[in-house]
Q: What sequence folds into this?
């Protein structure tokens, strides 16, 4: 068995290392370079996400160890990078407010419990094959949700950049509190923040591949340690834990029923974000490179990654679009590059923690601030407004809820609004009538045109699945067509080209329509009925009413049968 056959056999049997195999030795150097590039970007980024989450800075680095490795080995996507993420970090911070002091042992324990609960939800989703739930978050509300999170994240970092105390209750209080303390701004902290922002922005302007965050962190550490900035009131983390994280279940905390119920709600919100964001990112790159991708296998990888997070003293991890794009830009095409990033992170934990203890927290605030600003998708919101004004208001409502009420409520609203958008589209489908032009070429016209394919024959094309919400519209349109038809109709044909399902309510409506037409001596026929839909109509009893001979392959067949009927002058049954 050769090298490639062995890789294919291992991947097929167990899905193990599906994100790495197959791979050639020639690919390895590019993967190593991409992994090093990702480490340069991700190390300061995840420390910033730890600050968003209210966790000790070192726990951000922990997310790039066990959780990242577990996903790389057991996930389906060859491209998705899993680690700390701003959206889930913000949800966690909002959810744990009031339960424990940020960065305390109790807070870290709650974070670990949330990661394990999120992993449980992901595993249940895999067992019942709920990967499709990711489709219930529309791009419209996702843009609004992430924009709202970006605004909230950026505002939350202002106190840290100014060297004043923050108030994390909500955006209004945070801004008010910040303005009230303007007189207490630490000018040295403000200078550090300004220098860090300058370095990041200049590097991005030169090239997105330059790790501006890492350069800012390195420069700040050198300046802080040599000038003793902590003596000037610049906040630094102090001792940073060295080495590998301690493995084990989260520390003991008081878990009343109310607290557990609250944690379940927070974890479920994060679960939905993980499901939607990870699946969307993985799917996009699978399409880009024409690769196979299984959402359900991915759920296992994401679940194991969060189990690893909960047992290694860190917080919930998620698929990161920014890190994934960074690897892709650097030439990485498999999860091997992510394993390289994990190895470099481990080296940083073993040998660089003493240097990290001198890093001004204002630098991380500046890094997180830029991340938050980048999440504010003005271009996406503008595009929605131009193309779909109605959906723009839905997206804007999501932004406002996230910013002024909370991230948790925002993601739940996003789900509801996504479903409402879908229901709205199906509630009022743009149905048409099939007719012919002066040359005899078939085309469609709006239902309001009341056009007949032939005198006495209407072809009515319903442009959606038939279900309880649009069944009444269908009946109303059909009755209006009958009442206004000139000449009087003999046949009424429902074109089911776009129908892939008929629920119980719609089937009952079709039976009512049949009886209403029969009372007017109008025959009901159907065309282009898909086999599964035909079975539903058989079971519902409609076929017994209209007869098996009332089904036609195309509307041309309907027109031909109608012509024969008219020519024979047989009474309509």
A:
């Amino acid at each position: 068995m050769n090298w490639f056959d062995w890789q294919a056999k291992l991947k097929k049997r167990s899905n193990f290392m599906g994100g790495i195999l197959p791979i050639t030795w020639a690919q390895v150097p590019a993967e190593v370079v991409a992994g090093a590039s990702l480490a340069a970007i991700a190390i300061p980024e995840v420390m910033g996400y730890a600050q968003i989450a209210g966790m000790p800075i070192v726990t951000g680095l922990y997310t790039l160890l066990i959780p990242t490795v577990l996903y790389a080995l057991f996930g389906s996507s060859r491209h998705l990078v899993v680690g700390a993420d701003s959206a889930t970090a913000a949800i966690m911070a909002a959810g744990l407010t009031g339960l424990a002091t940020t960065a305390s042992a109790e807070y870290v324990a709650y974070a670990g419990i949330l990661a394990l609960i999120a992993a449980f939800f992901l595993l249940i989703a895999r067992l019942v094959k709920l990967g499709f739930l990711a489709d219930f978050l529309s791009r419209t509300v996702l843009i609004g949700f992430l924009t709202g999170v970006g605004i909230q994240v950026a505002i939350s970092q202002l106190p840290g950049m100014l060297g004043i105390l923050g108030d994390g209750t909500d955006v209004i209080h945070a801004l008010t509190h910040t303005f009230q303390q303007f007189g207490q701004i630490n000018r040295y902290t403000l200078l550090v923040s300004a220098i860090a922002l300058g370095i990041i922005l200049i590097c991005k302007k030169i090239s997105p591949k330059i790790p501006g965050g890492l350069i800012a962190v390195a420069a700040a550490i050198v300046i802080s340690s040599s000038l003793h900035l902590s003596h000037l009131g610049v906040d630094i983390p102090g001792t940073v834990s060295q080495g590998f994280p301690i493995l084990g279940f989260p520390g003991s905390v008081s878990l009343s029923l109310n607290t557990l119920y609250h944690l379940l709600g927070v974890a479920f919100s994060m679960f939905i974000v993980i499901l939607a964001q990870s699946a969307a990112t993985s799917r996009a790159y699978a399409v880009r490179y024409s690769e196979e991708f299984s959402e359900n296998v991915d759920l296992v990888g994401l679940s194991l990654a969060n189990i690893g997070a909960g047992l290694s003293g860190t917080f919930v991890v998620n698929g990161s679009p920014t890190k994934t794009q960074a690897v892709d830009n650097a030439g990485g095409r498999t999860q091997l590059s992510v394993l390289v990033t994990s190895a470099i992170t481990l080296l940083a934990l073993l040998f660089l923690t003493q240097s990290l203890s001198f890093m001004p927290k204002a630098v991380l605030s500046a890094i997180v601030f830029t991340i938050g600003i980048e999440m504010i998708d003005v271009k996406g919101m503008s595009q929605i407004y131009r193309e779909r004004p109605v959906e723009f208001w839905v997206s804007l409502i999501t932004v406002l809820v996230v910013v002024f009420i909370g991230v948790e409520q925002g993601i739940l609203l996003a789900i509801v609004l996504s479903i409402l958008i879908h229901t709205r589209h199906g509630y009022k489908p743009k149905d048409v009538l099939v007719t012919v032009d002066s040359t005899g070429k078939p085309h469609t016209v709006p239902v309001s045109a009341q056009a007949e394919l032939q005198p006495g024959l209407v072809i009515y094309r319903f442009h959606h699945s038939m279900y309880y919400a649009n069944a009444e519209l269908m009946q109303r349109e059909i009755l209006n067509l009958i009442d206004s038809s000139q000449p009087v109709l003999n046949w009424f044909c429902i074109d089911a080209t776009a129908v892939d399902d008929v629920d119980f309510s719609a089937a009952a409506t079709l039976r009512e329509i049949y009886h209403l037409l029969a009372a007017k001596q109008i025959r009901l026929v159907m065309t282009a009925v898909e086999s599964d839909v035909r079975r539903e109509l058989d079971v519902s009893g409609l076929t017994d009413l209209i007869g098996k001979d009332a089904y036609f392959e195309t509307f041309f067949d309907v027109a031909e049968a109608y012509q024969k009927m008219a020519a024979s002058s047989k009474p309509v049954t």
About this structure: The mean pLDDT is 86. The first strand starts at residue 81 and ends at 83. The radius of gyration is 30 Å. The chain has two domains: 30-423, 432-568.
